[in-house]
Amino acid sequence: MNNHLLPHVTAILAISLNGKISIDTNTPARFSSTEDLAHLEVQISLCDAIVFGANTLRAYGTSLTIKNPQLLERRKKESKPPQPLHIVCSASGNLNPDWSFFAQPLPRALLTNEIGKNNWLKLLQSQKLIAEKKTFFEHFFLSNNKVKWQETLIKLRALKYHKIAILGGAKLISSLLKENLIDDIWLTVCPVIIGQEDAPNLIDNSLFHEGENLFKLKKILELRQIGNEIFVHYLIKNRD
Predict the structure, then answer these.
(1) What are phi and psi for residue 123, nearest 5 degrees?
(2) Cis peptide bond prior to 168, omega within 30° of 0
(3) Does 218 fall in a domain?
(4) Distances in Å between the alpha carbon of 146 and those of 52, 112, 142, 221?
(5) C-alpha dihedral over 231, 7, 159, 161, to 10 degrees?
(6) Is residue 22 included in any domain, yes or no?
């Protein structure tokens, strides 16, 4: 695949010392610092779109918006909209229109299939909400059943979404890593250990093919310490 047809894809996550991204399933990750939140806002401000799974949205009910005046001014000078496109990935379309996310001042898109789109529209019709806020999403990106990530990313690149951030969760990150579609990853390593056995990990087992149990990153691009947290930027794949 010609990398010039694909957007630049960066994963951004905070993890515990034992590799957990949350204390429990569908629970917000509240263990990182305000410095990590500021770091995330900076990284999002560099992007044209961000992608996250439905479970991540269920956990928070909102998405992070850019509020820093300097970051907003920089986007304005670069002729970018104030907020990147926020893309929710949900095969079922089972989302709650009452979430604060749908009232936030940001552009939204739903990455789903025909069934998921129809489920969402039927839900809005049953609550008589379509006329009030149209479909709540400015864009629908449709796949046949399982998302074909390479095709989806090519479409996004063609629509001028040149830089995309992936914010979780584990299944989403793993599916993209498995197809070698993530260029680099920012990890904030937080000084906590999460004991909940079924708390979600950074990746899930779908990343590995049968007989494999190791995934190597290429090199560290940047490393810094702020307070008790370590911010590390890893290169995952080279672009020819």
Answers:
(1) -65, -45
(2) no
(3) yes
(4) 16, 9, 10, 33
(5) 10
(6) yes
* Strand pairing class (219-226; 229-235): antiparallel
> What residue numbers bound the domain in which 113 lies?
3-235
Residues 35/230, Cβ–Cβ less than 8 Å: no
Chain segment 132-189, per-residue pLDDT in tens: 566 799 999 998 877 889 999 999 999 999 999 999 888 899 889 988 999 999 999 9
pTM of this prediction exceeds 0.85: yes
**Would residue 240 count as lying in a domain?**
no
CATH number of residue 77's parent domain: 3.40.430.10
Distances in Å between the Cα of 205 and the Cα atoms of 21, 174, 187, 211 are 15, 8, 19, 12
Domain count, the chain: 1
- Structure letter (DSSP) for residue 25: T
Question: Phi and psi at residue 71, in whole multiples of 5°?
Answer: -70, -40
